[in-house]
Each structure stands twice: as C-alpha cells, then as structure tokens.
C-alpha cells in the first residue's frame, strides 16, 4: 500500500509541475489552410494547343479570374499559414507590479499557385506554377 | 491512507481536466444547387438561364470575348486545444465554386466547377 501511495505521489508531482509553470512558459502552434491541394500542370498541357475546356475539366473553377487586356488568366491557389509562439515569463502580478516576460513569435504564410494565361480564343498561352509549401519551413522563414 | 488516495485522485482528475478544447464551424452560404449544373449546356444555355438557376453571381468579370460569372461559397472548421502550457490551433477553409464563361452573344461557352467545401475538416496543426 505504501508503495502504491508513493507512486501516486510521484505521478501527482509530475503532473503538477506543468500546472505550476503554466504562467511562466507556454508554447502555441497554429495552422491555417485555405483551398485544396494544387497539383503541378500535366506535361501534355502545351502552349498554343491546350484549350480552356481541358484546364477547367482538370482543375475546376478558378480561385480568381483576371482580364489582361485581351488575354485572361485563371488563378488556382492554396494558402498555408503556420505560426509558432513561445513565451517565458515570471508571473509576479499578484506579488509585485513588474511582470517580466519574454516571448517570440514566428509567422509564415506560403502559397501553392498555378496560373494559366489564355488568349482571347481560349487557347493556353502560358503556365506558371509554384509549390511554395514543399520548401523547407525553416529556410523560407529565415 | 484511503482518504489521501481519494484526494489525490480528485486532484489528478482536476489537473487532467484543466485543459480545454474548442470546435467551431463557419459557413459563407450561397444557395446554389450542384445538381442544377446538369441543366447547363455549353453552347445553348444563356446568361439569363444561369442567373435563373443559380441566382446573382458573387462576381462578374469582364473579358474581351464576353463575361465570366463566378459563384462561390465556403465552409471553415476550427479546432483548438489548450493543455496547460501547450496550445494548438487549426483552421481549415474550403470552397465550392462555379465559373461560367459567357460570350458576347450571352451564351455559355465553358463551365468550370469544384465542390470541396465539405472536405473542410477538424484537425491538429501537425
């Protein structure tokens, strides 16, 4: 029985430590995602040949549609935002007025984007693709 | 001893329960019906038919060879979890979209559609 009691005390202490330091240290991780996965354009998409109908049947409705003085562009995009916040502090509000603390936050918003530019005859003129979310999170941030 | 065990058990339960979770759901609603697309045929359906079936578009884009009518609605789902010193937040937003390309004779020439709003999900940020 004594042994069991000691075990409970140990577990309680381990669990109480985070509670005791909850005002001193905190870690927050956030993720915001908007839009579905953007796939790279197929190899068979060819400038001067591929039609608007083929692109629409493959990618669906665009996020945005822009007139370009004759030509027009379809814009498909996925946005991915990540945020990490770490803060350290000494909660002295109840003891003294100064409440020293230090915190750091990192925010990074990246995009996967494909843009198809069409002529007035609905024929593909140009393609631009970028997979922003596949790059290193660390390198992109710094 | 039994009383001590009981008190510690209560404290542990309170400690574990001190975290908190939040789930949220938002909707940017536009009452268009996916099945109405079956009534739209490129080359014969007119711009008036489109607005009769789908209502006024969210956006009209003027193109040099006509217009484009864009319809959009979305669902977003948010998840939050607080565990004493750790906080996790996740927000996922997905869209249903339809684009009608209409020529200068007011006839639909191309249709693009994607219905992903229902794929928005509750999740953790890792």
The separation of the N and C termini of chain B measures 43 Å
- Secondary structure: number of strands of chain B: 5
**Quaternary form:** heterodimer
Given the C-alpha coordinates, what overall shape of chain B results?
rod-shaped
**Total helical elements of chain A:** 3
Structural class of chain A: alpha+beta
Question: Which structural class fits the helix and strand makeup of chain B?
Answer: alpha+beta
Give the low-confidence spans of chain B: none
- Largest interface between protein chains, with number of residues from each side: A-B, 44 and 43 residues
- Major sheet of chain A: 5 strands, antiparallel
Structural notes for this entry:
The complex is a heterodimer of chains A (142) and B (126). With 142 residues, chain A is of the alpha+beta class. Chain A is 23% helix and 42% strand. Chain A has three helices and five strands. In chain A, strands 1, 2, 3, 4 and 5 form a five-stranded antiparallel beta sheet that branches. By secondary structure, chain B is α+β, with helices and mostly antiparallel strands. Helix content of chain B is 18%, strand content 46%. Chain B is built from two helices and five strands. Chain B has helices at 2-16, 47-54, and strands at residues 20-28, 59-63, 66-83, 86-103, 108-115. The mean pLDDT of chain B is 90. The chains are: A alpha+beta (142), B alpha+beta (126). The A-B interface holds A 1, 4-5, 8-9, 11-12, 15-16, 18-19, 21-22, 25-36, 52-53, 56-57, 59-63, 65-67, 69-70, 72, 82, 120-122 and B 1, 4-5, 8-9, 11-12, 15-16, 18, 61-65, 68, 70, 84-95, 97-99, 101, 109-114, 116, 119, 125-126.
């Amino acid at each position: 029985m004594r042994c069991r009691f000691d075990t409970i005390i140990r577990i309680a202490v381990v669990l109480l430590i985070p509670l005791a330091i909850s005002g001193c240290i905190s870690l927050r991780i956030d993720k915001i995602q908007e839009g579905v996965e953007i796939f790279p354009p197929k190899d068979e998409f060819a400038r001067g040949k591929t039609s608007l109908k083929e692109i629409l049947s493959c990618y669906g409705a665009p996020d945005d549609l822009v007139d370009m003085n004759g030509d027009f562009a379809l814009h498909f995009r996925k946005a991915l935002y990540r945020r990490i916040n770490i803060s350290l502090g000494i909660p002295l509000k109840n003891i003294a007025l100064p409440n020293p603390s230090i915190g750091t936050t990192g925010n990074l918003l990246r995009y996967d984007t494909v843009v198809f530019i069409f002529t007035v005859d609905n024929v593909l003129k140009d393609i631009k693709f970028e997979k922003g979310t596949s790059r290193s999170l660390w390198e992109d941030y710094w | 001893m039994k009383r001590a065990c009981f008190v510690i058990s209560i404290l542990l339960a309170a400690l574990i329960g001190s975290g908190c979770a939040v789930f949220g759901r938002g909707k940017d609603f536009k009452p268009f019906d996916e099945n109405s697309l079956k009534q739209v045929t490129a080359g014969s359906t007119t711009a008036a038919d489109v607005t009769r079936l789908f209502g006024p578009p969210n956006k009209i884009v003027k193109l040099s060879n006509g217009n484009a009518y864009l319809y959009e609605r979305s669902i977003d789902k948010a998840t939050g979890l607080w565990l004493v010193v750790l906080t996790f937040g996740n927000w996922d937003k997905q869209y249903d979209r339809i684009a009608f390309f209409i020529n200068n004779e007011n006839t639909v020439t191309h249709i693009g559609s994607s219905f992903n709003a229902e794929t928005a999900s509750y999740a953790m940020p890792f």
